[in-house]
């Protein structure tokens, strides 16, 4: 079920109201049943795949806890093999077949199935459970229903945040009552997430698709505009989803981990990754980077580990070379940043930049934004032919206009507005600015808190205007899918 | 605050916001103007003619290729039966269009279907609902997949109406249409008494006919199944039903021949109704097209109608 669908508009209030009406001991099965319905809307039979990994991991958790010595490790391996096996089969088999054929090693027929929705998310969440039980940070869950709910809890089932058992499992045992402040706070977060998705992301999509659907027809400025818009589109799309997920969980009294923290204000790539898709970054940090040696190894090994982890992170997103390049590029950025740390500091010193922190921070944030945006070309181009994607990268700065040419309306209408009207373009840019202003305000204080403190009349006027703006500016022609659903 | 009070507040806010949208939809200040000028409202005139004609009559049904490219008078004079051209737009879908005419057909009537190569079974629900806004009877022809689609499409119609009204209020522009002008094509009053679109006759034609979009991934099976059902039902009523291929400009046909051959194969394999002629019968020089591969000029329409008359005559009509 999509968060931005009519189905969810009916599903959510029904599930929530019944949840609060039920006594605590019956709530788990209601939430589990609701989560099953939520998932089955996509493709009912894939519930069996989810069921298989849930059963394996549930027993693996208990066996790990009860076992001693090497046996514990074997049970963990069993769980990891089951999870990674399912993920590999559904997500990477066709990629492997295709790669073998491309290399002319072997030619097999591609398998004909659709990737189970959100597979990478719930597989990683399930793995974090058995790993944490193995590490002794989490007790094995004896209640099968609650364990199933941990994996299937509908707000985070298909696109995260990828939770840790320590954060979520105990919450299912806690009795949640109806708390007006919490419920309205959750609803506000949901509304903001929906606004980011339906109003900003889906509007930017129109511009982005225009260029990325026929990339070879464009050079220079249109590619730059589309790429900048995609940079915000993917943020609004994914963080919008996360906000709805966090908000809907908050309404019912559950606190999920924050997944985004104003990533485009980052002043370095490493900071970006502490602010972007936090639940995945920390997953890779905790379960791959640190086990590989983390920062405790030689510089060369550390660089290799970082590069490797980011390439794997790229592969996690999709069985496609573009995602691997996207991940590896971020890995390269980080290594390059580490290697050039001293020369950059020296440069800042001799140019006097370090004495003007505001300018230095702005330059750093701008550079980081450009690097991130450049990498998104590969990410967005995952459906394209290699030659088309290469065209985008190599023609980013070609055929740039002279100042005189750039300042003509015809040029701007075609290359900057991308043949949309000036009003449509200005609305898109205005919405991005509006969102970033909100982010800026949120540095110190939650905007939800600020609004809650307003007098009733003003608050209701704001709610009314916000909802009307949602209807007026939203794109409703198609219930557009969330980009991260494909992973 | 308890859950009851909260729900009351939430309900009040929903009523306030959605109520605004619903109110604009119900009291749309432009509705009267649109009813008189909108192309969607053209169904009112076409349907009125369909109902008023006595049997035996000839009913033409398809998308814009029939709307643009038929001379109904020629057909009427030749067949000695009154003709109504019900064609408006392919996007309404085969099922919807055939439902429009079914109850109005009686023994001895003749139906000529001429659906485009891009015809779908279900069609575009938004377009169908827009027609129903001006012609409430059209609601009977819409088939929603489920209640959710019904709610979604109806909500979207209201939101779009709200946006449009707001935009028109800001722009404060009132477009007037005239059959004599050389710019507009789609408006109510753009057809002659038979339902043939004639507003383009005095408009300048495109020098180059743009590339049409056909996909080899699309199948016409569902639309053919609708036509089969329609044919069976009409046969039982004593109505003659024929199918002719849509017209298609020569340059586009040469480029799309492979895909069209695939569609023709589907017709040959699945159609139970009689098909008159071949696609090539309706492929004409690009100079006979107005603004796209399906849209004939006045002269093109006459040539095409002549061809249909010949084929009907061969079929014994």
Observed structural traits:
heterodimer; A: 487 residues; 2 domains; globular; B: 317 residues; alpha/beta; Rossmann fold; 5-stranded parallel sheet; two-stranded parallel sheet
What does this structure look like?
The complex is a heterodimer of chains A (487) and B (317). Chain A is mainly α. Chain A has 2 domains: 6-178, no CATH class; 182-486, no CATH class. Chain A is built from 21 helices and no strands. By secondary structure, chain B is an alpha/beta fold. Chain B has one domain: 3-Layer(aba) Sandwich (Rossmann fold). In chain B, helix 1 (3-26) packs across helix 8, helix 5 (72-79) packs parallel to helix 11 and helix 6 (94-101) packs parallel to helix 9 (221-237). In chain B, 38% of the residues are buried. The A-B interface holds A 5-7, 10, 17, 20, 178, 180, 183-184, 460, 463-464, 467-468, 471-472, 474, 476-477, 479 and B 1-3, 6-7, 13, 16-17, 20-21, 126, 148, 151-152, 155-156, 159-160, 162-163, 166.
At a glance:
The complex is a heterodimer of chains A (487) and B (317). Chain A has 487 residues and is mostly helical. Chain A folds into two domains: 173 residues, no CATH class; 305 residues, no CATH class.
Report the β-strand fraction of chain A as a percent range.
Answer: under 5%
Coarse structural class of chain A: mainly alpha
CATH structural fold name of chain B: Rossmann fold
- The overall average pLDDT of chain A, rounded, is 90
Rounded Rg of chain B: 22 Å
Quick one: overall form of chain A? globular
Number of helices of chain B: 11
The level of helicity of chain A is: 55-70%
Radius of gyration of chain A, in angstroms, nearest whole number: 24 Å
Strand tally of chain B is 7
Query: Runs of chain A with pLDDT <50, length 5+?
Result: none
Given the structure, what is the number of helices of chain A? 21
Whole-number count of domains of chain A: 2
Spatial arrangement of strands, main beta sheet of chain B: 2-1-3-4-6
Secondary-structure-derived class of chain B: alpha/beta
Query: What fraction of residues of chain B sit in β-strands?
Result: 5-15%
**Termini separation of chain B (Å)?**
77 Å
Low-confidence stretches of chain B: none
User: What is the N-to-C succession of helices and strands of chain A?
Assistant: HHHHHHHHHHHHHHHHHHHHH
Based on Cα principal axes, name the global outline of chain B. globular
**Most extensive interface, residues per chain?**
A-B, 21 and 21 residues
């Amino acid at each position: 079920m999509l968060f931005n669908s009519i189905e969810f508009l009916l599903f959510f209030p029904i599930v929530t109201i019944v949840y609060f009406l039920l006594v605590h001991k019956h709530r788990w099965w209601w939430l589990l049943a609701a989560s099953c319905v939520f998932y089955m809307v996509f493709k009912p039979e894939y519930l069996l795949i989810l069921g298989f990994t849930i059963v394996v991991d549930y027993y693996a958790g208990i066996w790990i806890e009860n076992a001693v010595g090497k046996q514990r490790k074997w049970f963990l391996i069993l769980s990891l093999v089951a999870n990674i096996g399912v993920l590999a089969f559904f997500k990477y088999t066709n990629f492997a077949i295709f790669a073998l054929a491309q290399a002319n090693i072997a030619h097999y027929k591609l398998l004909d199935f659709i990737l189970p929705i959100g597979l990478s998310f719930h597989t990683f969440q399930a793995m974090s459970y058995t790993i944490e039980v193995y590490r002794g940070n989490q007790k094995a869950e004896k209640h099968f229903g609650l364990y199933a709910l941990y994996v299937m809890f509908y707000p985070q089932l298909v696109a995260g945040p990828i939770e840790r058992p320590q954060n979520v499992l105990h919450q299912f045992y806690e009795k949640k009552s109806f708390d007006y402040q919490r419920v309205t706070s959750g609803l506000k977060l949901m509304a903001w997430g929906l606004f980011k998705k339906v109003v900003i992301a889906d509007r930017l999509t129109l511009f982005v698709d225009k260029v990325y659907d026929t990339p070879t027809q464009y050079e220079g400025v249109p590619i730059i505009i589309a790429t900048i818009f995609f940079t915000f589109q993917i943020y609004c799309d994914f963080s919008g989803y996360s906000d709805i997920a966090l908000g809907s969980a908050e309404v019912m009294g559950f606190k999920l981990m924050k997944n985004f923290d104003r990533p485009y204000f980052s002043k370095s790539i490493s900071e970006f990754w502490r602010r972007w898709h936090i639940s995945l970054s920390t997953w890779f940090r905790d379960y791959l980077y640190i086990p590989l040696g983390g920062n405790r190894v030689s510089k060369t090994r550390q660089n290799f580990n970082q590069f490797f982890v980011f390439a794997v992170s790229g592969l996690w997103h999709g069985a496609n070379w573009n995602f691997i390049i996207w991940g590896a590029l971020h890995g390269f950025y980080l290594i390059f940043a580490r290697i050039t740390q001293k020369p950059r500091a020296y440069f800042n010193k001799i140019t006097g930049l370090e004495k003007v922190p505001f300018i230095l921070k702005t330059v750093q944030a701008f550079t980081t934004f450009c690097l991130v945006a450049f990498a998104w070309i590969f990410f967005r181009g995952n459906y394209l032919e290699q030659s088309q994607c290469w065209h985008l990268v190599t023609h980013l700065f070609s055929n740039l206009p002279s100042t005189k040419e750039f300042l003509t309306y015809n040029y701007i209408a075609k290359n900057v507005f991308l043949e949309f009207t000036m009003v449509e373009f200005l609305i898109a840019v205005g919405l991005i600015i509006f969102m970033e202003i909100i982010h800026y305000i949120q540095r110190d204080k939650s905007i939800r808190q600020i609004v809650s403190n307003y007098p009733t009349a003003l608050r209701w006027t704001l709610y009314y205007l916000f909802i009307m703006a949602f209807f007026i500016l939203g794109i409703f022609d198609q219930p557009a899918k969330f980009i991260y659903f494909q992973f | 605050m308890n859950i009851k009070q909260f729900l009351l507040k939430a309900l009040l806010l929903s009523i306030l916001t959605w109520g605004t949208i619903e109110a604009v939809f119900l009291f749309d200040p432009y509705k009267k103007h649109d009813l008189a000028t909108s192309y969607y409202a053209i169904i009112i005139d076409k349907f009125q003619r369909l109902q008023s004609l006595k049997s035996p009559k000839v009913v033409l049904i398809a998308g814009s290729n029939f709307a643009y490219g038929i001379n109904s008078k020629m057909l009427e004079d030749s067949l000695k039966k009154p003709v109504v051209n019900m064609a408006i737009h392919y996007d309404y879908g085969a099922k919807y269009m055939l439902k429009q005419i079914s109850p109005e057909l009686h023994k001895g009537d003749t139906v000529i279907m001429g659906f485009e190569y891009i015809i779908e079974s279900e069609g575009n629900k938004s377009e169908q609902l827009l027609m129903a806004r001006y012609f409430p009877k059209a609601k009977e022809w819409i088939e929603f997949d489920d209640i959710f689609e019904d709610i979604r499409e109806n909500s979207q119609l209201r939101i779009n109406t709200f946006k449009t009204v707001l935009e028109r209020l800001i722009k404060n522009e009132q477009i007037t249409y005239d059959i004599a002008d050389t710019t507009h094509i789609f408006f109510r009053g753009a057809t002659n008494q038979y339902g043939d679109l004639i507003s383009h006759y005095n408009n300048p034609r495109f020098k180059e006919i743009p590339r049409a979009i056909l996909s080899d991934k699309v199948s016409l099976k569902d639309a053919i199944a609708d036509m089969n059902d329609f044919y069976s039902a009409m046969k039982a009523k004593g109505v003659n039903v024929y199918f002719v291929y849509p017209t298609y400009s020569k340059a586009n046909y040469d480029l799309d021949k492979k895909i069209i051959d695939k569609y023709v194969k589907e017709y040959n394999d699945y159609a139970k109704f009689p098909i008159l002629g071949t696609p090539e019968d309706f492929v004409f020089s690009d100079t006979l097209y107005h603004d796209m591969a399906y849209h004939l000029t006045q002269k093109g329409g006459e040539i095409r109608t002549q061809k249909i008359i010949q084929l009907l005559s061969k079929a014994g009509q």
